[in-house]
Inverse folding.
């Protein structure tokens, strides 16, 4: 259960905590910055209310259905002995267990391990297992091990605290054989110095079992967080990942089975989630292509959605345990965002299979999890290339002409080329489930990894690219071809918006890729983005609908009424996204039917955040929501709760200060920023925000010092560079302003605001050549920006 630290500067959507969008606070601050820095004036909060048209029809009432209850694995095993025996072979059966002699793998014979200046000792006291290590105050303390967590290739250990929290120790046991480097203690962050003050310390929220891990290692997990007391009373029906973790609560099925011949007919024998994707299905081989097709179309992805509850990078949006057969009723998965995935879609951070598989041609053709994996043992149905041969004829693929490797060698194994591994938690290799052909040419062009060089580490990607091209011709690009487009988007390159629009509009593009393309288009506002939003709101894939709703929040309230139908979507995640988008709507201007629709979206959004009230990000999101609702009192309360949950959570201080400023409480605003800097000294975002406060106070010299410090601490942040440069220019330090812009453009040569400022200043200085150069660069990056045409006209160039 290792998670990356929260970045000091926002770089994208973070999924582990529940905020959506994480760092949305920058939009609030961004609006402030645009006005303040362009005019060096005070920011005036508030948004006009707009009427929302009535929906085509009122929401249909939902009939009450008596929910099934969890009955526990022992009840299931009475009738399903064969499946139970198979399950006992799986890692699911050992996902979490009481720490006893038969379950603990680590060396507790007074073994010692040193890390970050702390020597921890692992020992036994009778039948109990103990560790002496640094506690929440940094002092060496004895802690009892309560549970084991996982089994192979590593095992972690859980420690219970009096407030109901259980924390995962960051020192883990390497369960591999000694000959493979195992049978040792190791730290999950070997390249860092994690002490008790770090958010990744084992006693802090990022290593909290109740929120971060529990629902995927136990069955019917209920976190039972008490927001008033800030405590947990977490429960489960099975300690491990048992039958009902996949099949759902079983009481209705048990009642049906016990009734025997007297049983009344019930759908699917009373099973909450019928996992029947393979029933009556065969894969029929085409001897011409060497590939197989499904005998009948896969009508739904219930099985994949069920597995994805745990096998995905996602965040919880419900207090109800999964699965329901619909992932987006309980969780919201990550898109192919930077930091999680490489530009071509390969796994980068720990993304747990689902997002990768959604990109694959196999998924598009109807392949489901159980086509390859036995659902009870969780192992492959058959070993090695025999598994792939179920659908890919060996006469075409298990030959040297295809593999280019000696038969029975590692290079001739299908998965080593098409599903390369990447290590997580230091020693745990995970296969990439996007099932792609090797693209060393993309390694050359984009710097992405490739399967060839993961084995041939002594050769360069250029060598591998030439070999692939020589064997299979230059046009063999495979199914996933969006790498260059996403790379261009991440770099803000010229003409990117057109490439993204084409990728989004292509009907062959997988839904998760379309959603990611739409999210990337938000960097380039204009006609093409708005057209994509319109299409996205009607898309069959809920991930695309959510991406469209998220993008719509960048637009004024006047056009957000387009989100109204989505407030009645079947899926909670979509309804919640609609509620967030509709936040600025004035309910008093609506008809009763319209108001009911909007309030349905509001309720959905608030419920998704309240479901994870233990997290500061949830309260940040609710604060932003209430800010949009022009309810400063509730917004203030939520931001204060976010700070209470995590005193070092910087976005809460920034937004709370904005609320105070907007409600004429400037003294409280400044005090809040000062308190934030006490909790998070030298944080560039807080320094930058305090600099804006000094601008409003006409204390320009002090503001310049703060802007300079923020820019120095975070030189990659283009907004900090822009604000600092504009402030320098306004203070008469023109040469330093130009130098700051030029240096920032070396870091990001395609930042639109930097290019616009550079062109504008060149015009003011009478440097026509520079003005034309930067104006053309600006327009090539942001062709639909409303500033583009006037800037070109002023620069005296017709180029576009």
């Amino acid at each position: 259960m290792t998670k990356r630290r929260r970045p000091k500067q926002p770089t994208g959507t973070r999924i582990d905590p529940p905020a959506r969008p994480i760092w949305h606070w920058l939009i609030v601050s961004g609006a402030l910055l645009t006005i303040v820095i362009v005019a060096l004036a005070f920011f005036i909060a508030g948004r006009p209310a707009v009427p929302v048209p009535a929906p085509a029809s009122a929401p249909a009432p939902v009939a009450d259905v008596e929910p099934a209850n969890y009955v526990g694995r022992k009840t299931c095993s009475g009738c399903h002995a064969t499946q139970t025996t198979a399950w006992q072979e799986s890692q699911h059966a050992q996902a979490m267990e009481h720490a006893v002699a038969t379950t603990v793998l680590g060396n507790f014979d007074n073994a010692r391990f040193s890390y970050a200046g702390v020597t921890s000792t692992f020992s036994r006291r009778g039948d109990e297992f103990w560790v002496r290590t640094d506690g929440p105050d940094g002092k060496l303390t004895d802690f009892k091990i309560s549970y084991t967590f996982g089994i192979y290739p590593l095992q972690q250990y859980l420690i219970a605290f009096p407030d109901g929290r259980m924390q995962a120790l960051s020192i883990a046991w390497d369960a591999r054989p000694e000959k493979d480097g195992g049978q040792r203690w190791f730290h999950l962050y070997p390249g860092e110095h994690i002490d008790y003050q770090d958010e990744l310390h084992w006693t802090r929220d990022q290593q909290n079992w109740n929120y971060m891990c529990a629902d995927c290692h136990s069955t019917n997990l209920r976190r039972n967080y008490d927001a008033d007391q800030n405590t947990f009373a977490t429960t489960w029906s099975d300690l491990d990942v048992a039958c009902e973790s996949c099949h759902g609560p079983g009481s209705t099925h048990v009642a049906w089975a016990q009734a025997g011949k007297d049983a009344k007919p019930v759908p699917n024998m009373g099973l909450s989630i019928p996992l029947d994707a393979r029933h009556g299905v065969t894969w029929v081989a085409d001897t011409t292509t060497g590939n197989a097709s499904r005998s009948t179309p896969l009508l739904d992805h219930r099985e994949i959605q069920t597995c994805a509850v745990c096998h995905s990078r996602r965040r919880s949006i419900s207090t109800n345990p999964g699965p329901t057969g619909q992932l987006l009723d309980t969780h919201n998965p990550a898109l192919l965002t930077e930091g999680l995935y490489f530009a071509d879609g390969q796994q980068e951070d720990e993304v747990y299979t689902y997002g990768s598989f959604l990109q694959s041609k196999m998924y598009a053709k109807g392949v489901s999890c159980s086509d390859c994996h036995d659902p009870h043992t969780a192992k492959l149905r058959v070993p090695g290339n025999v598994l792939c041969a179920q659908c890919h004829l060996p006469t075409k693929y298990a030959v040297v002409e295809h593999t280019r490797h000696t038969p029975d060698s590692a290079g001739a194994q299908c998965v080593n080329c098409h599903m390369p591994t990447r290590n997580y938690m230091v020693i745990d290799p995970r296969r990439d489930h996007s099932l792609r052909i090797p693209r060393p040419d993309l390694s050359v062009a984009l710097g992405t990894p490739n399967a060839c060089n993961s084995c041939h580490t002594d050769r360069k990607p250029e060598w591998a690219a030439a070999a692939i091209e020589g064997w299979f011709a230059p046009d063999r690009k495979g199914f996933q071809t969006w790498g260059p487009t996403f790379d261009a988007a991440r770099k803000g390159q010229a003409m990117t918006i057109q490439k993204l629009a084409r990728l989004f509009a292509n009907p062959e593009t997988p839904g998760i890729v379309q959603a990611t393309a739409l999210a990337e288009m938000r960097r380039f506002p204009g006609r093409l983005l708005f057209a994509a939003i319109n299409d996205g709101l009607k898309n069959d894939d809920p991930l695309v609908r959510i991406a469209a709703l998220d993008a719509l929040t960048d637009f004024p309230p006047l056009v957000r009424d387009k989100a109204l139908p989505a407030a009645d979507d079947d899926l909670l995640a979509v309804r919640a996204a609609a509620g967030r988008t509709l936040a600025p709507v004035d309910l008093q201007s609506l008809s009763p039917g319209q108001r009911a629709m909007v309030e349905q979206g509001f309720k959905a959004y608030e419920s998704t955040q309240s479901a994870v009230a233990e997290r500061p990000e949830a309260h940040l999101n609710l604060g932003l929501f209430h800010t949009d609702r022009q309810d400063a009192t509730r917004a203030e309360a939520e931001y204060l709760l976010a700070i209470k949950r995590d005193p070092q959570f910087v976005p809460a201080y920034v937004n709370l200060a904005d609320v105070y400023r907007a409600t004429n409480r400037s003294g409280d605003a400044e005090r809040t920023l000062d308190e934030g800097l006490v909790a998070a000294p030298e944080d560039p975002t807080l320094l930058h925000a305090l600099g804006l406060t000094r601008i409003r106070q006409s204390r320009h010299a002090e503001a310049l010092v703060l802007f300079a410090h923020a820019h120095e601490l975070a030189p990659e942040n283009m907004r900090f560079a822009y604000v600092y440069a504009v402030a320098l220019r306004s203070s008469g330090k023109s040469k330093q302003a130009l130098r700051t812009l030029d240096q920032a453009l070396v870091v990001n040569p395609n930042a639109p605001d930097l290019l616009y400022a550079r062109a504008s200043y060149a015009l003011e200085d009478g440097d026509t050549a520079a003005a034309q150069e930067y104006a053309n660069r600006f327009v090539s990056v942001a062709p639909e920006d409303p500033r583009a045409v006037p800037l070109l006209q002023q620069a005296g160039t017709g180029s576009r």
In short: Residues 2-65 have pLDDT under 50 and may be disordered.
